[in-house]
Amino acid sequence: MKTLLIVYHTGGVKTAQMAEAVARGARAEGGVNVILKRCADAGPEDLLAADGLILGTPENFGYMSGMMKDFLERVFYACEGKVNGRPWALVVSAGQDGSGAVNSVERIVTGLRLEKRAEPIIALKEVTPEILARCEELGAAFAAGLALGVF
Ligand SMILES: Cc1cc2nc3c(=O)[nH]c(=O)nc-3n(C[C@H](O)[C@H](O)[C@H](O)COP(=O)(O)O)c2cc1C
Question: What is the helix (H) or strand (E) element at residue 90, kind and residue range?
């Protein structure tokens, strides 16, 4: 069975709500092993064992959260060249922008040669039911793509 890894950081609750919605959608779709971890609890062994990756971060000071950067720093060289082509996507929670978080994560993950399979989902100010539904759809799409071998 393929494994979908969801790694997120939250300083409050919003990014956690988004990441949990992604996991809920993936588990409802079925056919994949879904692992949901906070950045602090995830490491290179998790990424190496995963067939797909969905990241979640708040935007802090126009960048990804420090904990997400720490995760990416810890996995980058351990995983470089070993995860090429695996699908990934991103969810972001922000006060009024989000682009700094998106750009900073994309720049690093591009270096890992992962393949972006969906446009980022950005929640501004509120994590609305519509945003949570989109997160669930993202999880379901990844689960289906991995289970069917489309990705
Ligand atoms: C230290 C700090 C810096 C922030 N910087 C930004 C920022 O640069 N741009 C932005 O749109 N929101 C910024 N915010 C707002 C958060 O991104 C927003 O509240 C987000 O929804 C928090 O998600 P969380 O509940 O998962 O921590 C900042 C919040 C904090 C605490």
Answer: strand 87-94
